[in-house]
Every structure is written in structure tokens, then in C-alpha cells.
Amino acid sequence: MDTYMVITAEGGDTEEAVKSVSREISRLESVLSRTIDTSSVSRLNTEGSAVLDEDTSSLLAAALTYSADTNGAFDVTIAPLVELWGITSDDPRVPSQEEIDALLPLVGGEHVHMDDAVTLDTGCAVDLGGIAKGYASQQVADILRAHGVTSAVVSLGGNVYVCGGKPDGTPWNVGIQDPAGSGYAAMVSLTDRFAVTSGGYQRYFEAEDGTVYRHILDPRTGRPADSDLLSVTIISDDGTAADAYSTALYVMGEQEAVSFWRAHGGFELILITADGRLLYTPGLSDAITKPEDCAYDFQLLTAQPAA
Ligand code: AMP
Ligand code: MG
């Protein structure tokens, strides 16, 4: 999945658990990756219609519901534009507005038809990169539990899962990376949770004129999201949803992201804004701490907008 996985586990059959996790991640990558020619996703994208394995078809179905939920801010049919920009590829480039306009009509969940086989409208393609790591983390959580692991941390490129607490029973401390620096912007103490972060700082390329193009695209414009956020962290019991929402809320920007949380609920949220604020939801009040050298202005979000 083009990232590192770090796993620490205790209690139960840890050795078998870790082996099994490693096998599962490789297996999921081999079906879900857009850049592996033989994957289910590649087969669907090149042939336009394919009978998919269980994981790919259930994840694609889930992705379509997250797309509807987020009013299209998360949209796996963004793939043709991901390919056009190539931001995470070896040769990224800035396309012309004409090239972007030509592909924008291919974006939208209505172009995916799910039956026994999945069929895409002509020219359309899907990219599960915004949700695959969260789904993989969710599967890892199940494997760890099935092996009786009582205490573990799994980190898969911005997706953290903590199983139980630390071996001494106290919660794990998860560091939220400072998107503008090298240290942590916040620490959050968590047990049995997923914490998924999306941010423009993770993957980008810099054009010759110095403009930085970031890897999360706005499906409405077909261009890198012009977000007023540096990062979005979703903390939830559901790793897959947390991954979809972290990408979506980054695209939405501060105001729409906060409104989405207020209307939707069911997860905790940390937003780091480009103007130096760190916003967090009330459910994190007892869990979040500000590192000593951290310059962000911590602000508590309220369930209701201020009058
Ligand atoms: P994440 O790191 O989870 O935020 O996912 C970012 C990745 O998802 C990108 O590298 C693209 O492969 C893909 N992607 C980019 N923009 C979107 C979007 N608006 N909706 C869904 N997937 C996207
Ligand atoms: Mg994501």
C-alpha cells in the first residue's frame, strides 16, 4: 500500500497474529490496488466490467454510500483525475483545464453499476486509495482479536488502530502529527479505537514554479482540494468509515467539516487549520493533551453552532 506498517502486540498468540496480519495486508493490496495490473480494481478499470472478489465488491459498495453521505466530497470515481495528475506517481504533472474538463463528467457514483458483476460507464474508473488502508486496518483489528491479542497498536500510513490499552492497562497515547512541522500537534489517549488522519502534507509534488499540488482532489473541480485545513483526524470504532471521512472532510474544509460532524455524529474529530488552530470535539476533552512546544491554538468544538 505504498507505506510502512508498524505493529506492536501483546497477549494471546502474538506471533501467529502478526504473521496473519502481514499476509492479510499483502492479500488486500493485491486485490485493491489501482496500480497493480492484476488486482481486481485494475481488472475492473481496464475491462469496464468484472466479477469482483468479496473484499473489493463490499468495499466499493461501502465507498458509494460514503460518497452519497458526504455529498460527493469522497468519491472513488475520481480515479481518471488521480491518473491525470499523477500526484503520487513517479511523473506528476499539471494538466490543462481542457484535460480536466474532459474527465470531470466521468466522476460520480451514478457511473458505477453493481450487480453480480460490477460495470462502469465508458471511460470511468475507481480508486480505493482513500479508503483501502482504513479497511485493511479494520481487518487487522479482527485478526488480532481472533488471536486473543489484548494489547496492540497498528499503524498503517496515517491509519492507527489501538487494540485494548497498554500492557499495564492504561490507554495508548496516539500522537497526531504536526502537519506543518516534524513533531506532534496533539496527543490523544485511546483504547480500542481507530484514528485516521488525512492531510495535504502527506503526499504532494512541487511544480517548477514552486506551486505545491497535494494528493487529495476535490471531485467538484478535478483539482487538488483548495482546503483551509492542514489535516483532519477522525477517531471512530469504524476504521473504514474513519478513512473515508478523513479524506472527505479535508476536501470540505473547516466550515463544512464541522457542519458534517454536527449533523452526522458517531465519531470524534480533530481539525488543524491553516491559520494555526486545532479544533477538537467534546468527546476528546479528557483524552487530548497539548505538547509543551506546540504552537496551535486549541479550541473545543460545540455540538451546536454559536448563536
Ligand atoms: P487519504 O490519504 O485516505 O486521504 O486518501 C487519499 C488518496 O485517495 C489519494 O492519494 C487518491 O488516491 C484518493 N483520492 C484523492 N481524492 C479523493 C477524493 N476526493 N475521494 C476519494 N478518494 C480520493
Ligand atoms: Mg482516507
DSSP E strands, number: 18
Largest sheet: 8 strands, mixed
The ordered H/E elements are EHHEHHHEEHEEEEEEEEEEHHEEEE
The secondary structure category is alpha+beta
What is the chains' assembly state?
A: single chain
Q: What spatial order of strands do you see in the largest sheet?
A: 1-5-6-9-14-15-16-18
Distance between the termini: 45 Å
| Rounded Rg | 19 Å
Percent of residues in β-strands:
25-35%
Low-confidence parts lasting 5 or more residues at pLDDT below 50? none
Helix content: 25-40%
Tally of alpha and pi helices: 8
Q: Assign an overall shape.
A: globular
What small ligands are held by the chains? Answer: adenosine monophosphate, magnesium ion
- Arithmetic mean pLDDT: 95
Explain how this protein is built.
By secondary structure, the protein is of the alpha+beta class. The protein contains eight helices and 18 strands. The strands form five sheets. Strands 1-5-6-9-14-15-16-18 form an eight-stranded mixed β-sheet. Strands 2-4-3 form a three-stranded antiparallel β-sheet, covered by helices on one side. A hairpin with a 4-residue loop joins strand 12 (217-218) and strand 13 (223-224). Bound molecules: adenosine monophosphate and magnesium ion. The site of magnesium ion has 6 residues, from helix 7.
How is this fold's topology laid out?
Blueprint: E1 5-10, H1 14-32, H2 40-47, E2 49-50, H3 54-69, H4 79-85, H5 97-103, E3 112-114, E4 118-120, H6 132-146, E5 151-156, E6 159-163, E7 172-177, E8 184-190, E9 193-199, E10 204-206, E11 212-214, E12 217-218, E13 223-224, E14 229-236, H7 239-252, H8 254-264, E15 268-273, E16 277-280, E17 288-289, E18 297-300
Parallel strand pairs: 16-18
Antiparallel strand pairs: 1-5, 2-4, 3-4, 5-6, 6-9, 7-8, 8-17, 9-14, 10-11, 12-13, 14-15, 15-16
The chain binds adenosine monophosphate and magnesium ion.
